[in-house]
Design a protein that fits this description.
CATH superfamily of the largest domain: Bordetella uptake gene, domain 1
Strand order of the largest sheet: 2-1-3-10-4-11
Distance between the termini: 69 Å
CATH topology of the largest domain: D-Maltodextrin-Binding Protein, domain 2
Structural class: alpha/beta
CATH class of the largest domain: Alpha Beta
Number of strands: 11
């Protein structure tokens, strides 16, 4: 039998150990303890800024925002300012950025030495989709009609797009490649922006446009254009009569996604916190209402899957752009 003194000492030691472990657990969970910088790779009022405001609005409305956001814009350079900013915030758990696939394209194009491997992908959040659009009086009734002409002569159809490289461009090249078209010969005309491209289509300057779905839906509802295909993985409820590429036997899905990134070597407690927080946020009523308001689609993907997706997309872009002479590697 232990004497009373030894028993008291053991009980005291056990209690102290429990308190120490509990204290360590609380310390690990004490995040965030101050405001977090939310940094969209765009100017106020732009698409990425809308994402930042929507995130803040949803988390606030659902009483899920533990500490306020400080929104700091890093527009310009096609997202390069944000990427550089994140790289220079190495190890900082209080900075998260919002960017698109420019984080892949810019490194491949050689406009910056950093890419997705130099930051911390946290989650993929939303997407828009691309589509093929023709005027209502076009001879093309389906996307397969267009591809048939391209197969005979890759130079026979001119596509309008907003910019290159871009998902508008990839939404032209990938389906054509799948159908055995010599896609490097396809004629692509670049316009200033989606709205300008739509005006050029309506004016008869190009026979077909590859553009964002939101640019085309209003014109289609007005009967001015016809949407031939959408780049979603399956038909969209809003456009039940418009086929996706897979409906046409073409294994292609293109997401114009927006993702959340942290600095390199982001602390695990911060990374885990935001993965969990965004996973909860995308299920809320407020977030779903905001997606409808801004004509966005849910594309949530947690950090580990998002990182793998980025690696796959990076290789896809490399394979497409390489033969076209559009790659340039910048040494770090």
């Amino acid at each position: 039998m232990l004497d009373k003194t030894v028993r008291v000492a053991l009980v005291t030691f056990a209690a102290a150990t429990l308190l120490m472990v509990a204290g360590q657990g609380n310390a690990q969970q004490a995040y965030p303890t101050k405001p977090v910088q939310m940094v969209p790779a765009g100017a106020p009022g732009g698409g990425l800024d809308i994402h930042a405001r929507a995130i803040e609005q949803a988390l606030t409305a659902e009483k899920m925002l533990d500490k306020p956001f400080t929104v700091i814009h890093k527009g310009g350079g096609g997202g390069n300012l944000l990427t550089s900013y994140l790289v220079n915030q190495k190890g900082n758990g209080y900075v998260i950025g919002i960017n698109s696939n420019r984080i892949l394209l810019n490194e491949l194009m050689g406009t910056i030495e950093y890419g997705f491997k130099d930051v911390t992908p946290i989650v993929r959040l939303t997407t828009e989709y691309n589509c093929w659009v023709v005027r209502a009086d076009s001879k093309y009734k389906t996307a397969l009609d267009v591809l048939a002409d391209l197969k005979k002569d890759p130079t026979s159809v001119t596509f309008g797009v907003g910019t290159v490289p871009s998902n508008d461009q990839f939404n032209t090249l990938l389906p054509a490649k799948q159908k055995g078209v010599d896609y490097g010969k396809i004629k692509i005309v670049v316009f200033d922006a989606g709205g300008d491209a739509m005006a050029k289509l309506l004016g008869g300057h190009v026979p077909i446009l590859s553009t964002g779905l939101s640019e085309a839906v209003t014109q289609a509802e007005a009967g001015k254009v016809r949407i031939l295909s959408v780049s979603a993985a399956s038909k969209l409820d809003r456009l039940p009569n418009v086929p996706c590429w897979k409906d046409l036997g073409i294994d292609v899905a293109i997401y114009h996604w927006r993702g959340i990134y942290g600095p390199p070597e982001m602390p695990k407690v911060a990374y885990d916190y935001w993965n969990k927080k965004f996973a909860e946020m995308v299920k809320t009523k407020t977030w779903k209402e905001l997606l409808d308001k801004f004509e966005l689609f849910d594309a949530f993907m947690p950090g580990d899957e998002f990182t793998k997706m980025l690696a796959r997309d990076n290789e896809t872009y490399r394979e497409l752009l390489g033969p076209m002479g559009m790659l340039k590697k910048v040494k770090k």
